[in-house]
């Protein structure tokens, strides 16, 4: 099928590359001319496993890049909207980019078009696009609007796209449903995974679940999925705070909770909170939808509040371990909002570093992929090291802020020798306290008792167990 993908960001670029990998003829459009020039020059632009290979195989053959949206819309049967939907006023999604693309489609359309809405949008956005098309004189038989939310994660975006758990298609006509099945057929019938040279699937890949729903349901599935995952993270972070205060170990607690198959182990890693371009804004946008429905739910507000407080809690931990922060040299491992990506949007790691700088610390940072992007935000306020060990040299403490795999396998003896003070504060629980202690490092992590940080004791009073401040062990 001839597909135009509008937007060449994380989602647009990955979707365009993967649709071409599935055999479609794709033009990926962006109104950022510099971005398109770079893509045309063979640059990959984002750090994503397998993206260089997929672009290399398809660019110039089934995949092209262009700034000419008018031509792309005219020549395509399916038009995929993949532009940004940032947080707007009062937490609502800012739909101005979607609005401008929808207007352009309505004006340029010539013959049948399948409009595939992939950006994350609030419920009724698809209905609004349909209304706009009709108001612009497009006949109902000449277009369909489909909600096809995207569930990929940054860092594993290509694998997530080509081996998804589920594909959700919200459509109101048989014609649209038929076209969508055609677009995804190599994933639905397994033919893609059998191709020699296909991107390898994950070890535990299962058959994809293909869900056909109404457009409103599809829109809600996306917002509710992100809100639920964010809720799981805030929940475990709250439990981590309790664990730490009463001398429990959040890693034991997490294993215990997650072993219940109804709950599962995933998205129960305690840390410095969730970040990224999606969870914070999608939780806020879903809250706005709930408010508009007249529901007085505080659940999602609490999810955001707990998340924001994780940063303050971690900074407090650093203060508690180091004492006065002014003038202290801190080695910071991680700048990206999560491991495996160079994306620093809403990164908790950047927030922690900004907090440390505000208190007068000197920060030397290292990230395997996100240093260039971080420089645009942090500039010269931070020194950038070439690796984790160079960052650690002569530091008064090392903080781990992003869950990069390489940060979990550091040479601890070498680290011990390099640090001026053998102190590690781990915001991602990448190590066991025993391992760190054997390496001679003083170790603080999230939600784990370290022999000192228990702050609550107990007493039985009138048949009820009272928790009260503890005065050390
Ligand atoms: P992004 O900001 O990285 O990319 C958006 C791109 O759209 C930019 O390159 C911008 O120049 C381009 N653009 C804006 N207006 C345009 C126009 N009128 N014509 C052509 N191009 C235009 O955003 P993203 O991270 O790719 O996210 C896109 C959407 O997908 C959002 O709604 C987001 O919530 C959703 N989403 C993102 C992820 C993710 O992991 N990043 C995952 C699932 C869903
Ligand atoms: C998330 C969702 O996982 C995707 O399904 C969704 O498509 C996407 O948002 C989106 O809509 O944009 P992503 O933001 O790439 O994907 O990253 P995640 O792996 O979900 O991590 C988000 C944040 O939560 C990161 O800061 C990560 O460090 C943190 N996290 C994740 C935890 O603190 N604990 C966990 O157990 C898991």
Structure description:
With about 475 residues, the chain is of the alpha/beta class. It folds into 2 domains: about 1-215, Rossmann fold (3-Layer(aba) Sandwich), CATH 3.40.50; about 230-445, Rossmann fold, CATH 3.40.50. About 40% of the residues lie in helices and about 15% in strands. The protein is built from 18 helices and 16 strands. A 6-stranded parallel sheet has the order 3-2-1-4-5-6, sandwiched between helices. The protein has a 6-stranded parallel sheet with strand order 11-10-9-12-13-14. Helix 14 (about 350-360) links the parallel strand 9 (about 330-335) and strand 10. The radius of gyration is 25 Å and the shape is globular. Bound molecules: nicotinamide-adenine-dinucleotide (NAD) and uridine-5'-diphosphate-glucuronic acid. Nicotinamide-adenine-dinucleotide (NAD) binds next to helix 1 and helix 5.
Concise description?
The protein is an alpha/beta fold and 473 residues long. The protein is built from 18 helices and 16 strands.
């Amino acid at each position: 099928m001839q597909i135009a993908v509008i937007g060449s960001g994380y989602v647009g670029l990955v979707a365009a590359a993967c649709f071409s990998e599935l055999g479609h003829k794709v033009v990926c459009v962006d109104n950022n001319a510099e971005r398109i020039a770079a893509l045309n020059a063979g640059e990959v632009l984002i750090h994503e496993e397998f993206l260089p290979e997929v672009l290399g195989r398809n660019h110039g053959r089934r995949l092209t890049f262009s700034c000419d949206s008018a031509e792309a819309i005219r020549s395509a049967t399916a038009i995929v909207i993949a532009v940004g939907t940032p947080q707007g006023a009062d937490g609502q999604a800012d739909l101005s980019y979607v609005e401008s693309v929808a207007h352009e489609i309505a004006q340029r359309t010539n013959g049948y078009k399948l409009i595939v809405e992939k950006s994350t949008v609030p419920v009724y956005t698809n209905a609004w696009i349909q209304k706009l098309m009709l108001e612009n004189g497009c006949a109902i038989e000449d277009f369909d609007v489909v909600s096809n939310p995207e569930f990929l994660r940054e860092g594993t975006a290509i694998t997530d796209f080509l081996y998804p758990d589920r594909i959700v298609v919200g459509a109101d006509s048989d014609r649209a449903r038929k076209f969508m099945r055609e677009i995804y057929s190599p994933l639905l019938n397994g033919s893609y995974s059998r191709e020699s040279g296909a991107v390898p699937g994950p070890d535990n890949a299962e058959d994809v679940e293909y869900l056909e729903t109404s457009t409103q349901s599809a829109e809600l599935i996306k917002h509710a999925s992100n809100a639920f995952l964010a809720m799981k993270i805030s929940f475990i972070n709250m439990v981590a705070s309790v664990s730490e205060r009463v001398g429990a170990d959040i890693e034991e607690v997490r294993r215990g909770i997650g072993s219940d198959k109804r709950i599962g182990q995933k998205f129960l890693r305690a840390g410095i909170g969730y970040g990224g371009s999606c969870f914070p804004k999608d939780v806020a946008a879903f809250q706005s939808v709930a408010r508009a429905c007249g529901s007085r739910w505080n659940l999602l507000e609490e999810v955001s509040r707990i998340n924001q407080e994780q940063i303050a809690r971690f900074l407090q931990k650093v203060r508690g371990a180091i004492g006065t922060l002014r003038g202290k040299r801190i080695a910071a491992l991680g700048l990206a909002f999560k491991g495996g990506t160079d994306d620093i949007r809403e990164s908790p790691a950047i927030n922690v570093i900004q907090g440390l700088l505000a208190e007068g610390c000197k920060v030397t940072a290292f990230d395997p992929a996100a240093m260039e992007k971080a420089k645009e935000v942090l500039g010269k306020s931070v020194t950038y090291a070439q690796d984790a060990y160079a960052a650690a040299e002569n530091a008064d403490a090392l903080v781990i802020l992003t869950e990069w795999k390489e940060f979990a396998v550091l040479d601890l003896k070498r680290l011990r020798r390099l640090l001026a003070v053998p102190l590690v504060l781990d915001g991602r629980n990448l190590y066991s306290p025993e391992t760190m202690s054997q390496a001679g490092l003083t170790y603080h992590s999230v939600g784990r008792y370290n022999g000192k940080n228990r702050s609550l004791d107990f007493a039985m009073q009138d048949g009820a167990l009272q928790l009260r401040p503890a005065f050390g062990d």
